[in-house]
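TA notes, week 10

Several of you asked for a full example with nothing omitted. So below is the full record: structure tokens for the whole chain, then the designed sequence directly under it. When grading your own attempts, check the secondary structure regions first.
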């Protein structure tokens, strides 16, 4: 039996088929149309373009497999987006995405109405522009003619589920990022729905990520090539599914993933709430487990920005090879990676990036190394908050582009002062979704068993004591810099 995982990302949709040993049998990625930005800070996509990409990706993987071999399908997807549907399930407007920034006013209103501490008590997270509820309030306030027609609201991957099986369903992990979900009790929050006059009938039924929500319909089978009646699993948001795909399933296991943004993901066996709102607390894709997530917005983006503007035409490998010749600590050069504002630990859209500590002896190689170290410092901020909240950290596993660079792997081990691991084959959130499909179909008794049988450690990198000492000193300075520069950042960020 084989299992299909579908990841509905921002840039494209990916389909991955695995067998019961975790072997990749087929995979395909189909790009989405670029998201639209009708105004500065806005980000919208057409949900039906996700379905187009998903059907194309499924048909590609089925070119080398028989549909009858697929025992179950499950999902991962970009979180926080909003799909508005009428009574006939017709899309009423483009979906507002996770990166859409238009809802600052609504976030302020949510916090003022509920109170910052009470809000975190109810939904375990502060009101930020990326989450779903502020988007609903924006549409209701600014597009009342659209809101009057709304009969259901779905997250991105759950719209694809609707097209695949006809079911209005979601999962606890993805729903945790809506600001309408009682994360501690794993259900919709009646108090939040009442306070903001959101009809519960608009929202889907919520399942645990390993549960089966329906079956592939005859119409969807005709479009995708899948067998009608194939089981459809609940799945998870991309962070939780990606963690499953890396084997981050037990309390104490933590991942640090560097893509465009950087995410630190820690599993807990009970909700650990940060009343200061610096990190997110969400349900994990495993029953009776939760996770804390810290996010830095410009991780891999920092290196991309530096290369495009100051790399003098050199490749990433060339820049990193030069940086490897510079000693740990970059001779005192420090990078604050706030190119896009920041989320953890500073929930500040007006934060600005900076190089600090430069002298005439610093070179491009020093600055490249400072960028790599500064991103690791920003991720360490999340580790420090986890420790403050009493979370256990027994192992750290690296993912994303940051795990593909030997230098960046070593820098992370040194900055975290801990041995770090990489896995043999990182296939991302779609692989995690495929594992969830297999658990739902009964191939494995639990997510723990699925990961134990399919995910293997490739390398362990120990920290270098001499580097740890230098980087601890730089990190101490790094922690002081946001507060020191904040008054200047505020002035710079003021609009004319």
């Amino acid at each position: 039996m084989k299992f299909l995982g579908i990841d509905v990302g921002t840039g494209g949709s990916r389909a991955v088929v695995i067998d019961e040993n975790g072997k990749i049998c087929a995979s395909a990625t189909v790009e989405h149309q670029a998201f639209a930005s009708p105004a500065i800070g806005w980000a919208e996509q057409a949900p039906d373009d996700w379905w187009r990409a998903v059907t194309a990706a499924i048909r590609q993987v089925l070119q080398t497999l028989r549909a009858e071999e697929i025992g179950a399908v499950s999902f991962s997807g970009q979180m926080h987006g909003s799909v508005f549907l009428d009574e006939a399930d017709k899309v009423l407007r483009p979906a507002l995405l996770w990166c859409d920034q238009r809802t600052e006013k609504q976030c302020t209103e949510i916090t003022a109405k509920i109170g910052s501490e009470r809000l975190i008590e109810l939904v375990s997270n502060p009101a930020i522009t990326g989450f779903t509820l502020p988007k609903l309030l924006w549409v209701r306030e600014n597009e009342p003619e659209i809101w009057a027609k709304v009969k259901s609201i779905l997250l991105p991957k759950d719209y694809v589920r609707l097209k695949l099986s006809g079911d209005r369903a979601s999962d606890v992990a993805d729903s945790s990022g809506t600001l309408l979900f009682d994360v501690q009790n794993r259900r919709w929050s009646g108090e939040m729905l009442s306070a903001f006059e959101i009809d519960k009938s608009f929202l889907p039924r919520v399942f645990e990520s390993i549960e089966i929500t329906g079956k592939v319909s005859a119409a969807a089978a005709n479009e995708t090539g899948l067998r009608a009646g194939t089981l459809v699993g609940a799945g998870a948001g991309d962070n939780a599914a990606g963690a499953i795909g890396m084997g981050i399933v037990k309390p104490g296991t933590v991942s640090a993933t560097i893509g465009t943004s950087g995410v630190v993901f820690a599993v807990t066996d009970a909700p650990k709430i940060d009343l200061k709102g610096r990190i997110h607390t969400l349900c994990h894709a495993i029953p009776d487990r939760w996770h804390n997530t810290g996010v830095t917005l410009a991780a891999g983006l920092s290196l991309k920005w530096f290369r495009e503007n100051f790399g003098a035409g050199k490749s990433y490998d060339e820049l990193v090879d030069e940086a490897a010749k510079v000693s740990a600590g970059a001779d005192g050069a420090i990078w604050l990676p706030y190119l896009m504002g920041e989320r953890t630990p500073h929930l500040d859209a007006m934060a600005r990036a900076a190089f600090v500590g430069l002298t005439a002896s610093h070179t491009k190689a020093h600055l490249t190394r400072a960028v790599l170290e500064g991103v690791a410092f920003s991720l360490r901020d999340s580790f420090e908050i986890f420790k403050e909240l009493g979370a256990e950290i027994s192992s750290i596993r690296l993912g994303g582009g940051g795990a593909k660079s030997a230098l960046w792997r070593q820098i992370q081990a040194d900055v975290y002062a801990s041995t770090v691991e990489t896995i043999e084959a990182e296939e991302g959130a779609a692989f995690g979704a495929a594992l969830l499909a297999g658990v739902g179909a009964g191939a494995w008794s639990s997510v723990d068993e699925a990961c134990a049988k399919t995910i293997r450690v490739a390398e362990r990198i120990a920290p270098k004591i001499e580097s740890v000492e230098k980087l601890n000193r730089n990190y101490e300075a790094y922690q002081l810099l946001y507060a020191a520069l904040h008054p200047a950042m505020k002035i710079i960020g003021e609009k004319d």
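The chain has two domains: 2-240, 247-425+464-496. Use that as a sanity check on your answer.
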